[in-house]
Each structure stands twice: as C-alpha cells, then as structure tokens.
Amino acid sequence: MLNTAIWNVRGLNRRDHQVAVRDLVSEFRLHFIALLETRVMQSNVTRIQSEVLSRWRWFVDYAAPGNRIWIAWNDELIDVEFLNVGSQFVHCRVLIHELRETILITVVYGANEVSARRELWQGLIELSVTIGNVPWLVGGDFNAVLDMSEVSGASGDIRLAMNEFNDCILQTGLLSMPMQGERFTWHNCSLDGRSFWKRLDRLLVNDIWMDRWPNLFYTCLTPRTSDHSPLVLKGDCRNMQVSLFRFDNYLTLSPGFLASVHSIWRHPVTGTLMYSVTRKLKALKSVFRQQRRSKGDLAMNVKLAAASKLEQVMLRQRAKLQWLKGGDQCSKVFFRRVATRRANKRIF
C-alpha cells in the first residue's frame, strides 16, 4: 500500500524545517508527501527542492495565490498524474507499481475565511461526481472542524463554518478514516495564556477505499517544527513497526560515553520539546554504534567469555572428582586442600 504524508510545514526556507521533512520521509519510508504553506519564492523553488528531496519528482502550482500546495513523490515506486488544480486543492491519480492499482488523492489547503472556503466545498462536491468506482483519499488542512469536541479553548463562533463542512462531507459521501495519535492537530502556540487547540487537519476516504482497505488508519504525529501535526498513512496497519531507541548498557562504562551525550545534547533543535528529544536520540545512535565497533566483535566476545566460563566449570568438576577419589587419603590432594583451607581461614 502507499506510504504517504500530508503536512502544513509553515515555511520551507529554514534549514530545520527541511531536515524535519527529510526525517519524516526517511522514518516512515514515504512514497508520496504533500507539503502545505511552503512560503518559498518561485526563484528559490529548484534550490529548496534539491535540498529537501533531490531524487524525487515535484509538483508546484504558483498560479494559485499563496503557493499553498507542494507535492513530491518517488517515481521509482509510483506514477502521479495531475487531473485538476484549484485554488485550495490539487487532485491527482496515483498508480502504485507494486499493487498495479490506481487511487485518487486530493490534497486540500482550505482558506482562512468562511466565505472563501465555500469555493473549496463546491469543488470537492463536483469532484465526487467524477470519481466513479476508484478509491479516493482527501486530506490536508481544511481550516475547519466537524464538531465542538474538536476544539479546546475559546475561538469565537464557528458554528456556520462547522455546518458547511459537514454539509460538504455529506454531499460528497466521504467518511472519516480511523486515526490514532494526537487528537488536536493545530495549536496557536500562545505565550499569553490564551491557548487553544483545534483538529484542522484530517484524512477522509470514500466507501470504495474503506471496502478495499478496511483496517487502514493514519497517525497524527506530535508537532515538529510547525504548529500543525503531520498526518502519516503507512501501508497496512498489520505491517507497521515501531522503531525503539536501544543501546548496550556496557557502553555507559566507556570513558567517552558522557562526553558524547553532552556534546549532542547541548545543540539546540528548533521545534517542540518532544521533537527535540527524538532528534538528539537519533543523533546518538551513530555515536553509540561507533563506540560499539571500537569494542570489537561483541558476538565473538560473548562466545569467548562463555567458553572461558565453561572451562572454569569443567576444572571445578574435575577437582571434585579428584577429591572424591583421593581426598580422604594421605595424598597430595589432601594436604593441598588442608593448606588452602588454613590460608583462607587465617586472621591477620
């Protein structure tokens, strides 16, 4: 199945934002990614794309105001054909090479104003008529919520926007894809105590998609360098693997262990605290790997230690046999044992 992600990155000019995108692609082995609100001038497009994903294909649309949506994909795994480009969405057909199956993806970035978003709702309704019997995924930043439980904190009267969004979903026949992770996908990052959260980002699918992949879900990750959370859809949920941070405890006894941790931990990382921790742990992996190599072949050392231990056990067993055979006689074995016992019992 297609590994894909949609993320409102809130700018792609900064180095830390570019690194966060590359990390996302690498961590989840993505085939397709849509980036919203890149804020990149048209003259800098080629340079930014080469720094983020140099070997991937890219689509950008500067005809729409604000350069709202960028799409990148690995053309060795999928083919992408763009069918319709609106001011608030990009609609494309994706052929997955491995499955030899075609799906439709619509990437959305809704306008901030309620009146402007009506163009988006109407565009999605018109698209739904043309979909036919093909799996359809619609996802992105809708700038609207479905009900009041998706808002935490005072944010004004949003009932009109909420009702229009629900009407659009009803008319298009879209369904909410099962989700895990963060419930709220956007935070205003206020420092004056007037914080509020909303679930502005989501993935929706049609009934054909739901019938084809009934166990599929997407993950809403913790925010990284943006105030929006990345949305990641990674294949079949049965094949998902969680990458854990592990290292060998014996490395803590190495002279350079604490120095290595301090050198990496003091470097600042832009983004949320949890993202900063994960970035630093990832950087430590290569350091610990090098320290482990300097200790030699760990597996061979374990085998040698086990062999040495086995040899000691065998020698002790042989000593017991010798004692059973000649321990009670006036032999060298008896007198050696007596001398050893006296030496051990002596009080200085």
From TrEMBL:
Alphabetical list of InterPro entries matching this protein: Endo/exonu/phosph_ase_sf, Endo/exonuclease/phosphatase
GO molecular function, one term: catalytic activity
Ranges for domain Endonuclease/exonuclease/phosphatase: 7-228
Entry protein name: Endonuclease/exonuclease/phosphatase domain-containing protein
Provenance organism: Sesamum angolense
Source taxonomy: Eukaryota, Viridiplantae, Streptophyta, Embryophyta, Tracheophyta
